[in-house]
From TrEMBL:
Keyword annotations: Membrane, Transmembrane, Transmembrane helix
Transmembrane residue ranges: 18-39, 59-79, 86-104, 110-131, 138-162, 182-204, 225-246, 266-289, 309-330, 342-362
UniProt superkingdom: Bacteria
The protein, known as: Uncharacterized protein
């Protein structure tokens, strides 16, 4: 059964043009990165000590083959980005190879710690955001500053230790900056080619009626199911980390509270709260507060939520989770840490969040089959 949605295939949609441009630029950068690895095998981005490939080439394969293949993929990508919609399997192949086979767990680790790092800052900013008027925001900001000063004066927060931590963190980021940038580039490439593939699949129907499942009322149904699945996927890790607030700590198994230091406990709890908060946001893709700002947000309450405010971050996270699922499971198997497979169900979480985001975009009129 199909809907009555039909359109002409005359022009390329803005989203499609953006994906084509992104694929072209990404392919351009593949050439110098491949040359870097080819000309500096010991110091290249794929020779870093942190690099743990999901799949490795046989030892009999010369070292120059992989970077040469990357250069060739970049050159071919300059043409593949302009391929006709009927050639979407080629762009899908790029998405799978770079997004799932060449990616590592480094980007998800980096993203998780980045979210955990900024979570306290976001919490401190909530009173300022919720305050009414300029005067109210100034008062809220002054109250937050005063609270932080009191916590520092009483020794609850050791700002000297915080400064040392930030200095060490900055040094660590400087050491892995180039490596991490390339790892993010690999995952970003997977996302770009996946977006181009989706644009081809949805936009290459040449006037044929769109399938019934793409109709907004049907998307609302399967999108709600996908949203709840994505929310459920956030619970194992988030609730496990919440046990760190109790005497019954779980870190891949029962652990005495005295065996976990304060720094690790703080990072774990922040990561746990970030996971649960992200899971809650998944539900916003199917409920009213995801389309109109809720009543407790005084400045924008009742106004429509700009679709991209939800779609862009949700799509980014969905792509990241989906792409790292294969290397993450491979890492868990190699380290004989199978509890990571159920604690981080990225293989379900990513696709479910992606489906929920697509349904949200359909309901908001951002995506439609053409």
């Amino acid at each position: 059964m199909t809907t009555e949605l039909t359109t002409a295939p005359a022009t390329r949609r803005p989203a499609g043009r953006a994906a084509v441009i992104a694929a072209f630029l990404w392919s351009l950068t593949a050439v110098p990165i491949g040359l870097w690895q080819l000309l500096d095998p010991a110091g290249g981005p794929f020779s870093h000590e942190l690099y743990q490939p999901t799949f490795t080439l046989p030892g009999s394969v010369p070292d120059w083959v992989a970077p040469a293949a990357l250069i060739a993929a970049g050159v071919l990508g300059l043409l593949a980005g302009r391929a006709k919609p009927a050639l979407w399997p080629l762009t899908a192949l790029y998405a799978v190879v770079f997004g799932m086979l060449l990616s590592t767990v480094s980007p998800i680790s980096f993203a998780g710690y980045l979210c955990a790092f900024f979570l306290p800052l976001a919490i401190l900013g909530i009173p300022v955001f919720l305050a009414r008027g300029t005067a109210g925001r100034l008062i809220a900001a002054a109250a937050v500053v005063a609270l932080m000063a009191v916590l520092g004066f009483t020794g609850v927060i050791d700002y000297a230790a915080v400064g040392d931590f930030l200095a060490n963190l900055g040094g660590a980021l400087a050491d892995i900056g180039a490596y991490m940038a390339v790892q993010v580039w690999v995952v970003a490439g997977g996302g770009i080619w996946a977006a181009l593939t989706l644009s081809h699949v949805l936009g290459g129907r040449e006037g044929r009626p769109a399938p019934e499942w793409l109709a907004p009322h049907r998307a609302a149904r399967w999108g709600r199911v996908a949203s709840w699945i994505a929310f459920a996927c956030a619970l194992p890790y988030g609730l496990t980390r919440m046990t760190w607030l109790t005497p019954w700590v779980w870190v891949g198994g029962p652990l005495e509270s005295t065996q976990i230091d304060l720094g690790t406990r703080v990072w774990g709890l922040l990561l746990g709260f970030a996971a649960l908060g992200g899971g809650l946001l998944c539900l916003g893709l199917t409920y009213r507060w995801g389309t109109r700002w809720p009543f407790w947000m005084p400045v924008v309450k009742g106004r429509p939520v700009p679709p991209k405010v939800a779609i862009v971050p949700a799509t980014t996270v969905a792509a990241l989770f989906t792409f790292v699922s294969v290397p993450f499971v491979a890492l868990a198997v190699r380290q004989d840490a199978l509890e990571m497979v159920w604690a981080f169900p990225f293989y379900v979480w990513g696709p479910a969040l992606g489906a929920a985001t697509l349904a949200y975009a359909i309901r908001r009129g951002v995506v439609e089959a053409r």
